[in-house]
Amino acid sequence: MTVTLRFFASLREKLGETDSLTLPSGSTVGDARDALMARGGAHAEALARSRAVRAAVNQKMAAESVVLAEGDELAFFPPVTGG
C-alpha cells in the first residue's frame, strides 16, 4: 500500500513538504516511521526515536500503533508549544 507523507515545521525544513511511502499491508504509523528512518541521512536524524515527533493520520492525531490503509495521509510534526 502507498501512503502520502506530509511534514510540518522543522521537519518540513529538513525533509521537504510531501513524499510518499510504500509499505506492506497492515503496517502501522510506527512501521512507517521506522521505514523512513531506515532511509538514513536527514530522515534518520529528524525522525530518530530520541526526538519528540507527533503523527496524524488523515488529519487526526494518531498513536504509533494505528494501522494505516491504502491512500492514507500520514503527517509528522514536532510537538506544539506556546500559550
Automatic annotation (TrEMBL):
InterPro entries: Beta-grasp_dom_sf (IPR012675), MOCS2A (IPR044672), Mopterin_synth/thiamin_S_b (IPR016155), ThiS/MoaD-like (IPR003749). CDD domains: Ubl_MoaD. GO terms for molecular function: nucleotide binding. The keyword Protease does not apply. GO terms for biological process: Mo-molybdopterin cofactor biosynthetic process. Keywords: Nucleotide-binding. Pfam families: ThiS. Gene3D superfamilies: 3.10.20.30. GO terms for cellular component: molybdopterin adenylyltransferase complex. Belongs to the MoaD family. This is Molybdopterin synthase sulfur carrier subunit.
